[in-house]
Design brief:
By secondary structure, this protein is of the alpha/beta class. It has a single domain, classed as Aldolase class I (TIM Barrel, Alpha-Beta Barrel), CATH 3.20.20. It is built from 11 helices and 10 strands. It has helices at 15-21, 58-70, 98-109, 142-158, 172-182, 203-209, 229-241, 255-264, 275-286, 292-305, 316-322; strands at 31-37, 44-46, 54-56, 75-80, 114-119, 162-165, 191-196, 245-249, 269-273, 310-313. Strands 1, 2, 3, 4, 5, 6, 7, 8, 9 and 10 form a 10-stranded mixed beta sheet that branches. A hairpin with a 7-residue loop joins strand 2 and strand 3. Helix 2 packs across helix 3 (98-109) and helix 4 crosses helix 5 (172-182). The chain is globular. Bound molecules: ligand PBG. Ligand PBG binds at residues 118, 120, 122, 130, 166-167, 202, 205-206, 218, 274-275.
């Protein structure tokens, strides 16, 4: 197998042959675009650290969703913000919540788009944690998962095609499955944020959603970035509880985890290229330090190569337009 008989460069000499031998391909149908919905009409709040991403009221969101559908994107992941936070995060399961309103409008106006909702409490509670706070500065588990089930059932009732719990409480997938089944949504699948790490890369998102915890941090429920084997355990447990798809988050700093999980399970695996990953590329590109399109494309390709079947990314719209 040695030179000069073998020359690897032979199969790299022309774009045609490079395309023929490419092992990994990106397709618009692989990409899930996160969308942020807020109360009101004609409201758009740009997010400073996430250029081209904004919180939108339902009317503007519907227009954006139509554009995404036209580009061949099959699914969106919806995040909401409440009119008013409270102690239990009650607007998260309110019939008049922004997400519920958006679901009704999107189902009607963009029937071919697949609607996934983020299920969590952090944007809705005063404390900003993904579960309810206890009296002694911890985050309650077993009470929180009942509320998460209630949120998931509310989303399904208003039109969610799939729910995606991002809270990292123990037993939430089982609680959500129970709540969905009890409300006769046996066919609504769950994509669990199964291997979700306590990451610094969520910074821009928390600013956008005003969901920074008001005490402590999320390390008592999100995974320790030092741990790799534990991710497989988390994933297997979620599948056991009824998860139809699992997710790794963030993506690029955790490609080893993604690859392990791909090898360990045969359910579809998603990866979330999070706000900080997006912001890094955008900021470098704005400074002229990186070619944005090439860097975004390469980052997504690396995530797919590592094992993701689909990718949640703020680049979805831009990249789909170029594919
Ligand atoms: C809420 C949630 C977060 C993200 C998705 N769902 C933030 C967090 O856990 O702190 C992060 C998304 C991103 O950074 O793009 N639990």
């Amino acid at each position: 197998m040695s030179f000069p008989i073998h020359r690897s460069r032979r199969l790299r000499r022309h774009p045609g042959i490079r395309r023929l031998v490419a092992e990994t391909r990106l397709h618009p149908a692989d990409l899930i675009q996160p969308l942020f919905v807020c109360p009101g009409t004609k409201v758009q709040h740009d997010i400073a650290a996430m250029p081209s991403v904004a919180q939108m009221s339902v009317d503007l969101l519907v227009e954006e969703a139509k554009r995404l559908g036209d580009l061949g994107i099959s699914a969106v992941l919806l995040f909401g913000t409440p009119q008013k936070k409270d102690d239990t995060g009650s607007e998260a399961w309110s019939d008049s919540g922004a997400v519920q309103h958006a679901l009704r409008a999107l189902k009607k106006e963009c029937p071919s788009l697949y609607l996934i909702t983020d299920v969590c409490l952090c944007a809705y509670t005063n404390c900003g944690h993904c579960g309810l706070p206890s009296d002694h500065g911890t985050v309650l588990n077993d009470t929180s998962i009942e509320l998460l089930g209630q949120i998931a059932a509310s989303h399904a009732k208003h039109g969610a095609d799939m729910v995606a719990p991002s809270d990292m409480m123990d037993g939430r997938v089982a609680a959500i499955r129970r709540a969905l089944d009890n409300a006769k949504f046996q066919y609504t699948p769950i994509m669990s944020y199964a291997a979700k790490y306590a990451s610094a890369f969520y910074g821009p998102f928390r600013e956008a959603q005003d969901s920074t915890p008001q005490f402590g941090d999320r390390k008592t429920y999100q995974m320790d970035p030092a741990n790799r084997r534990e991710a497989v355990r988390e994933v297997l447990q979620d599948i056991d509880e009824g998860a139809d798809m699992v997710m790794v988050k963030p993506a690029m700093p955790y490609l080893d985890v993604l690859s392990d999980i791909r090898a360990a399970v045969d359910v579809p695996v998603a990866a979330y290229q999070v706000s900080g990953e997006y912001a890094m590329i955008k900021a470098a590109a704005q400074n002229g330090w990186l070619d944005e399109r090439a860097a975004a494309f390469e980052s997504l390709l690396s995530i797919k190569r590592a094992g993701a079947d689909n990718i949640i990314t703020y680049f979805a719209k831009d990249i789909a337009a170029q594919l």
